[in-house]
């Protein structure tokens, strides 16, 4: 280009340099517009993403609140059911005990029926001839020791467990026997 360093540049060189500078300026301006467009686009996309994240967060918070409410309700129901189970277990224990008692009573009934029949038969017997009177009888002393009223005259129906009176019902431990 230049033959000596002190000589001024030629007009062609100046035009070429100006054209080159103008092209550089145009390219810089174009790149600045591109960068500005990309920056604005990134800012818009960032705002959209933030809104989407906030919407997701609100949705998740609502879902968590609903699930916590359901959990609380389920825990309350579980506690109620646990209380009911404990009550039912207590009732079952009471009913088992009563059932055992009724079974024992039912197993003992034939023996009691026989005993009562023998007692009723004994009460219906007439006094033995030549036997001492009731007042001086050894049975009177035995009755006094056993806290029995020697003057008590029982009705045989009082000792019957049979179906003597169909209208009367005997209730034992809440159960009709």
Would you give an account of this structure?
The chain has 177 residues and is mainly α. It has 2 helices and 2 strands; from the N terminus they run ααββ. The chain has a two-stranded antiparallel ribbon. β1 and β2 form a beta hairpin. The N and C termini lie far apart (135 Å). The C terminus is likely disordered.
Question: Would you kindly provide a brief summary of this structure?
Answer:
This protein is mostly helical. Helix content is 69%, strand content 2%.
Overview features:
2 helices, 69% helix, two-stranded antiparallel sheet, mainly alpha, 2 strands, 177 residues, 2% strand, disordered C terminus, rod-shaped
List the helices and strands and how they pair.
Layout (H helix, E strand, L loop, with lengths): L10 H114 L13 H8 L25 E2 L2 E2 L1
Antiparallel strand pairs: 1-2
Keywords: Coiled coil
Organism: Salvator merianae
Protein name: Vimentin type intermediate filament associated coiled-coil protein
How is the main sheet built?
2 strands, antiparallel
Q: Overall 3D geometry?
A: rod-shaped
Number of strands: 2
Order of helices and strands: HHEE
């Amino acid at each position: 280009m230049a033959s000596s360093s002190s000589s001024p540049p030629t007009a062609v060189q100046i035009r070429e340099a100006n054209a080159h500078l103008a092209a550089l300026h145009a390219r810089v301006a174009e790149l600045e517009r591109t960068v500005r467009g990309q920056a604005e686009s990134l800012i818009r996309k960032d705002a959209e993403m933030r809104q989407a994240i906030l919407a997701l967060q609100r949705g998740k918070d609502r879902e968590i609140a609903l699930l916590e409410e359901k959990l609380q309700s389920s825990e309350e129901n579980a506690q109620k059911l646990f209380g009911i189970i404990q009550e039912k277990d207590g009732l079952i224990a009471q009913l088992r005990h009563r059932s055992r008692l009724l079974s024992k009573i039912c197993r003992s009934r034939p023996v009691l029926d026989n005993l009562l029949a023998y007692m009723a038969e004994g009460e219906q017997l007439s006094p033995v001839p030549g036997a001492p009177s009731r007042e001086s009888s050894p049975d009177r002393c035995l009755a006094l020791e056993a806290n029995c009223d020697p003057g008590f005259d029982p009705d045989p129906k009082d000792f019957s467990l049979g179906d003597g009176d169909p209208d009367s019902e005997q209730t034992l431990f809440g159960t009709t026997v």
